[in-house]
Design a protein that fits this description.
Distance between the termini: 26 Å
Structural class: alpha+beta
CATH topology: Jelly Rolls
Number of helices: 2
Order of helices and strands: EHEEEEEEH
Number of domains: 1
Largest sheet: 4 strands, antiparallel
Helix content: 10-25%
CATH class: Mainly Beta
Number of strands: 7
Strand order of the largest sheet: 1-7-2-5
Shape: globular
Radius of gyration: 12 Å
CATH architecture: Sandwich
């Protein structure tokens, strides 16, 4: 299991660095607790907004976008987490 603290400035769109993953979506299942801000989440089932203070789970197939500056702590299985992080690193140089 891996844990990550992530802070995203308002307007950050993660979609461009996920291009090349299956369906161009994050494939790592994630449990997240939101500490502040608002995070948009695009999935095949539709879009939703995750508010500060919420705890939620996303299975494979999602893309986050910072509607407001936001921070969260996420927990994911290490194998899937590392695949996504390695892909993002390859996209950002």
């Amino acid at each position: 299991m891996s844990a990550a603290f992530v802070r995203l400035p308002q307007g950050v769109k993660v979609a461009p660095v996920l291009v090349g993953l299956p369906d161009d979506l994050c494939q790592g299942p994630t449990g997240v607790t939101r500490s502040n801000g608002r995070l948009g989440m695009r999935t095949k089932a539709g879009d939703e907004i995750c508010e500060a203070g919420q705890v939620f789970h996303r299975g494979p197939g999602h893309v986050p976008e910072a509607v407001e500056e936001c921070a969260n702590v996420g927990f994911s299985p290490s194998k899937e987490f590392n695949v996504v992080i390695d892909h993002i690193k390859s996209q950002t140089g």
